[in-house]
Specification:
The chain has 419 residues and is α/β, with parallel strands linked by helices. It folds into 2 domains: 102 residues, no CATH class; 270 residues, 3-Layer(aba) Sandwich (Rossmann fold), CATH 3.40.50. The protein is built from 18 helices and 11 strands. The strands form 2 sheets. It has a 7-stranded mixed β-sheet, with helices on both faces. The protein has a 4-stranded mixed β-sheet with strand order 2-1-3-4. Strand 8, helix 13 and strand 9 form a beta-alpha-beta unit. Helix 4 crosses helix 18. The protein is elongated and about 75 Å long. It starts with a helix and ends in an 18-residue tail after the last strand. Belongs to the CFA/CMAS family. InterPro entries: CFA/CMAS, CMAS, SAM-dependent_MTases_sf. GO terms for molecular function: methyltransferase activity. This is Cyclopropane-fatty-acyl-phospholipid synthase. Keywords: Lipid metabolism, Methyltransferase, S-adenosyl-L-methionine, Transferase.
Length: 419
């Protein structure tokens, strides 16, 4: 059966996507603004051996399949076989249509894919050495590459857009300031920022609030970049970023703890110990701001071990619902004081990152290689679709460690209302 015919059966005739293949077959309207090109039998082997999002990702990342047109629009139209993946029945039908030959081809995954066997050799899920390798896989790509994608803020977390047309830098500043205000930061306080990335929150707290801030990250490249940025700002007396596991922080008695984009890497089984650890780092009346991606409900899988995101982007990543996270925090002694969902803000943040990658595409490919650049293009565009369609959310939860008399120290209303 011609590849174009199979494609049309899976995607449907109304998707408005052109299709072309090395066997000469074509499908879809000639005037379509999007086209998918299967360039070799290797692409077909990837699709046959892993039908759905993983096979498509392997074929695209390896260069055996090309996308002509906007990646986000393509993934949005192909929702059922990309972000949402195929049903089991659809996968079986697709494999049968492709035939036996592609199933027998030996085609190793692209080198950008993190093998489960590699992780398994480093210990159980979320053991320290294994976590370090998972973080290294994603974050130690290239500081120059991240600078092109993230912009000057080097903030690799959801921004908070004050206005619809705010710039990415304005929105990232607003996010850090929102966290600072929720934490009630004041001059002379001490802040611990776990999973601090390139030090954005640490620098913001020290520079704009006079806070003595300590950040920790498992990425050596991030720590080196952050320490240089701190020195460039002349903040060495207030700010520090260490290359270390958050579990190895010995200091205690912090006035505030921020966790911005780390919880997703902790793992469900370890989250009680994680929140207990952060609780122990706070002085009575101290506040925790937990900012992380979540599942929309408690019914979905916590992680998809065989999916594109887990294999190419965030190895061992796990998402929980915000309700589950809040219950764990409460059971450990935290009082929840505020919660909000920034889902739409993350979709906007990702659009800016995609635009930045497009604008610096040639330089990015030269820096990290075509395969890695394609991983990022696919991952970020797919995440926009996921946030827009409420497959994933982004929640900020503010919690406080009460003093011995049950006092929170939180004012009746914030001095400046949170947006």
């Amino acid at each position: 059966m011609a590849l174009a015919t199979i494609f049309e059966k899976i995607v449907g005739k109304d998707a408005n996507i052109a299709f072309m293949a090395y066997d000469g077959s074509k499908a879809g309207p000639d005037a379509a603004d999007l086209a998918l090109e299967v360039k070799s039998p290797i692409a077909v082997a990837y699709l046959a051996q892993a039908p759905g999002e993983l096979g498509l990702a392997r074929a695209y990342v390896s260069g055996h399949m090309d996308v002509h047109g906007d990646m986000y629009t393509l993934l949005d139209r192909m929702w059922n076989i990309t972000t949402n993946d195929l049903s089991t029945a659809e996968k079986v039908a697709a494999v049968r249509a492709l035939g036996v030959k592609p199933l027998l081809m030996r085609v190793p995954p692209p080198p950008q894919e993190m093998r489960q066997s590699t992780l398994a050799r480093l210990g159980s899920r979320h053991a320290k050495q294994r976590d370090a390798e998972a973080i290294h896989h994603h974050y130690d790509v290239s500081n120059r590459f991240y600078r092109w994608v993230l912009g000057p803020s080097m903030a690799y977390t959801c921004a908070a857009f004050p206005e619809e047309d705010s710039s990415l830098e304005e929105a990232q500043f607003a996010k850090f300031d929102l966290v600072a205000r929720k934490l009630g930061l004041k001059e002379g306080m001490r802040l611990l920022d776990v999973g601090c990335g390139w030090g954005g929150m640490v620098i913001h707290a020290a520079k704009h609030y006079g806070v003595k801030a300590l950040g920790v990250t498992l990425s050596k490249q991030q720590a080196e970049w952050a320490q240089k940025a701190i020195a460039d700002e002349g903040l060495q007396d207030l700010a520090e970023v260490r290359f270390m596991d958050y579990r190895d922080v010995r200091e205690t008695g912090f006035d505030a703890v921020s966790s911005i984009g780390l919880t997703e890497h902790i793992g469900k089984d370890n989250l009680p110990a994680y929140f207990a650890f952060l609780y122990g780092k706070l002085k009575p009346g101290g506040r925790l701001l937990n900012h992380c991606i979540t599942r929309p409900t408690g019914k979905e899988k916590t992680f998809n071990k065989g999916g594109f995101i887990n294999r190419y982007v965030f190895p061992d990543g796990e998402l929980e619902s915000v309700g589950w996270l809040i219950r764990e925090m409460e059971d450990l002694g935290f009082e929840i004081r505020h919660e909000e969902n920034l889902r739409e803000h993350y979709a906007k943040t990702l659009r800016h990152w995609c635009d930045n990658l497009d604008a610096n595409w040639d330089e990015a490919v030269q820096e990290v290689g075509m395969g890695t650049a394609r991983v990022w293009a696919l991952y970020m565009a797919g995440c926009i679709v996921g946030f827009e369609r409420n497959k994933v959310q982004l929640h900020q939860v503010l919690a406080v460690k009460l003093d011995e008399h049950g006092r929170s120290g939180v004012p009746l209303r914030p001095a400046r209302d949170w947006p």
